[in-house]
């Protein structure tokens, strides 16, 4: 459905509540609507045009811009937009693509969600977000073109003439009041379909119904040692001996995987994966823990992880790799059933990088010799020393990576997993080139908890609520995920 291009006035929630009260009491309310100029102005606004104007189309093509009409610079990673549409059927799936963008398609994400209160013109939405790589939007600037599109997963023709945010007559950019802009989750522009304001009531998260009652694996790592029988009973295996990845001749040391208080005197235990090296392969000890069951695929994977930039004793600079990831093993070169989704933090660089860098890498397959990798990745430069909430969500459309509640990367086909995966944490040395000193030094990667829920795409706040609920009920471990 097309809509007016007139910019709507957004009255703050507290003022709307006051208006309702005074109106019910039969009082004059005019004074309440005399808002300060700053409250009456929209700071971030959405502009829209379409390059597919027909009532039906092979794909919908909402091209968007965001303009900052406020006085302060805004990090785009704090901004999302929602384009609302009517699905062609309850079972129809959709896929997002970015054809071209001034900010770079790699810095733009697109996820789908279901509205809590469907209307005649909308029961779904496409939410557009930005990674940290998109930078900030200064006062008076706009993002420039974002040439976006979405289509049915089965490539059937879609109907868009009944879509709330669609306007077939809008072939050049203009303000779009039927597309909402959210800053830090609060609507700052546009009007959602009735009863579906993104902040009240909440809509379900992109890609799923938002339920947290699916089959679950939760572990808060309340063990005494890596040799504690409960570690194995709860479905974990601790790596020992030698072998890749990393430096040939280094040793995987179960004794260096321990469970310690989070802070001095704390009753909360965390898992500590220690890496120790003296600059030689023989003097390098690494740690790894992995699920024994290969039963994890679509769903939400979350962990609270503490990364370590600085060694305990000795010089800094080693090319260490601190990780949280899921994978299906490679059974042969270019195995089509292989998959992997990684968080890898390199506090001292490596693989040609000379500074702190975080990678989010999704793998289709690879050939180890000669090396040939089929993968894609996101990356962020800078220190991640300290505690961070890491989350990977996987559905039939996207792998989405989040750090501390912010989406940092999103990947689609051909990188989606084909089958069951293991969950893994490891801490290892990429090579011996970072620091050649023979003084022994250690780095510590720590993990507070692991949480997985099968076939549900959860928001970070839903994960935090679920974990708090489990801990509040005294649950230290739970595994209801079926074996197949």
Structural description of this entry:
The structure is a single chain. The chain has helices spanning 13-24, 37-40, 229-233, 460-472; strands at 44-50, 56-57, 62-68, 74-75, 79-85, 94-101, 108-119, 122-130, 136-137, 146-152, 158-159, 174-175, 179-183, 186-189, 216-219, 236-238, 251-252, 257-261, 269-277, 285-291, 299-307, 320-328, 339-346, 357-368, 371-381, 386-394, 399-403, 406-411, 422-429, 441-454, 477-479. It has 484 residues and is mainly β. The radius of gyration is 25 Å and the shape is globular. The chain has two domains: 13-189, Immunoglobulin-like (Sandwich), CATH 2.60.40.710; 216-479, Jelly Rolls, CATH 2.60.120.200. The chain is built from four helices and 31 strands. The strands form six sheets. Strands 15, 18, 19, 21, 26, 27, 28, 30 and 31 form a nine-stranded antiparallel beta sheet that branches. Strands 16, 17, 20, 22, 23, 24, 25 and 29 form an eight-stranded mixed beta sheet that branches.
